[in-house]
């Protein structure tokens, strides 16, 4: 039968308490500290992860807001670009239409100018042809009798000169060099009586006695021409034809 030994029992208890103290001192406390530190790290990592998640959420929201804002601005810019392109197209179209209208107007003016020039050339050509034909006819009709008749008409016109024409004739005669002779050209030789009548009538119209030199020029066709200084008196068919030809060319 076993006997209870108090000494052994007490020693065992002391050993147990020493073991508990050793475990408490060198095992449980470091382990608990390590567990606490690990739990703290986990908590810190969790908080840090939560902070990062919140930052990420904030960044996502900012990104979405910026993306929405960028999309809005892009849409606005697109509308503005479409409007600007439409305005430029309208402006370019208006400019093109105006340019075409101006070119069409210029072309019409050029065509009309070409037509007018052609018509004027035809009129001048017709006038030249008519002048040549009329000259041929008048040359066939020209005769000393016709020149004599034209000289008679010239004398009648001298007697009925207007005050202004008579003043101009007298002014031209007054500017002549003294003793200079007035050349009176006729298409045919004038009888002495007609030459004297013409000299007298011209001197009376000029307001002074004039000296005349008579000369024959068949180019006048019929009639005569007197030049007193700056004043020229025409009464012949060649000058009349030339006058009508100039009127036709400038008409």
UniProtKB/TrEMBL annotation:
<keyword id="KW-0472">Membrane</keyword>
<keyword id="KW-0406">Ion transport</keyword>
<dbReference type="InterPro" id="IPR002146">
    <property type="entry name" value="ATP_synth_b/b'su_bac/chlpt"/>
</dbReference>
<feature type="coiled-coil region">
    <location>
        <begin position="35"/>
        <end position="80"/>
    </location>
</feature>
<keyword id="KW-1133">Transmembrane helix</keyword>
<dbReference type="Pfam" id="PF00213">
    <property type="entry name" value="OSCP"/>
</dbReference>
<dbReference type="InterPro" id="IPR000711">
    <property type="entry name" value="ATPase_OSCP/dsu"/>
</dbReference>
<keyword id="KW-0066">ATP synthesis</keyword>
<keyword id="KW-0375">Hydrogen ion transport</keyword>
<comment type="function">
    <text>Component of the F(0) channel, it forms part of the peripheral stalk, linking F(1) to F(0). The b'-subunit is a diverged and duplicated form of b found in plants and photosynthetic bacteria.</text>
</comment>
<keyword id="KW-0812">Transmembrane</keyword>
<keyword id="KW-1003">Cell membrane</keyword>
<dbReference type="Pfam" id="PF00430">
    <property type="entry name" value="ATP-synt_B"/>
</dbReference>
<dbReference type="InterPro" id="IPR050059">
    <property type="entry name" value="ATP_synthase_B_chain"/>
</dbReference>
<feature type="transmembrane region" description="Helical">
    <location>
        <begin position="6"/>
        <end position="28"/>
    </location>
</feature>
<keyword id="KW-0175">Coiled coil</keyword>
<comment type="subunit">
    <text>F-type ATPases have 2 components, F(1) - the catalytic core - and F(0) - the membrane proton channel. F(1) has five subunits: alpha(3), beta(3), gamma(1), delta(1), epsilon(1). F(0) has three main subunits: a(1), b(2) and c(10-14). The alpha and beta chains form an alternating ring which encloses part of the gamma chain. F(1) is attached to F(0) by a central stalk formed by the gamma and epsilon chains, while a peripheral stalk is formed by the delta and b chains.</text>
</comment>
<comment type="similarity">
    <text>Belongs to the ATPase B chain family.</text>
</comment>
<keyword id="KW-0138">CF(0)</keyword>
<comment type="function">
    <text>F(1)F(0) ATP synthase produces ATP from ADP in the presence of a proton or sodium gradient. F-type ATPases consist of two structural domains, F(1) containing the extramembraneous catalytic core and F(0) containing the membrane proton channel, linked together by a central stalk and a peripheral stalk. During catalysis, ATP synthesis in the catalytic domain of F(1) is coupled via a rotary mechanism of the central stalk subunits to proton translocation.</text>
</comment>
<keyword id="KW-0813">Transport</keyword>
<protein>
    <recommendedName>
        <fullName>ATP synthase subunit b</fullName>
    </recommendedName>
</protein>
């Amino acid at each position: 039968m076993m006997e209870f030994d108090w000494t052994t029992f007490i020693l065992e208890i002391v050993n147990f308490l020493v073991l508990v103290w050793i475990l408490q001192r060198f095992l449980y406390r470091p382990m608990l500290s390590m567990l606490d530190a690990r739990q703290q790290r986990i908590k810190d990592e969790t908080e840090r992860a939560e902070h990062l998640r919140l930052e990420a959420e904030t960044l996502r929201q900012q990104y979405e807001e910026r993306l929405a804002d960028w999309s809005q601005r892009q849409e606005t810019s697109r509308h503005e670009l479409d409007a600007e392109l439409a305005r430029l197209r309208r402006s370019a179209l208006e400019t093109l239409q105006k340019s075409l209208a101006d070119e069409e107007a210029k072309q019409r003016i050029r065509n009309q100018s070409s037509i007018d020039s052609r018509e004027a050339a035809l009129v001048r050509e017709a006038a030249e042809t008519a002048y040549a034909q009329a000259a041929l006819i008048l040359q066939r009709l020209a005769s000393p009798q016709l020149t004599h008749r034209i000289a008679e008409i010239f004398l009648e016109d001298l007697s009925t000169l207007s005050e202004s024409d008579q003043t101009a004739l007298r002014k031209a005669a007054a500017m002549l060099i003294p003793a200079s002779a007035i050349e009176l050209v006729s298409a045919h030789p004038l009888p002495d009586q007609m030459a004297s009548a013409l000299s007298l009538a011209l001197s009376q119209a000029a307001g002074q006695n004039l000296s005349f030199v008579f000369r024959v020029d068949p180019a006048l066709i019929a009639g005569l021409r007197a030049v007193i200084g700056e004043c020229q008196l025409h009464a012949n068919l060649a000058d009349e034809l030339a006058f009508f030809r100039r009127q036709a060319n400038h008409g």
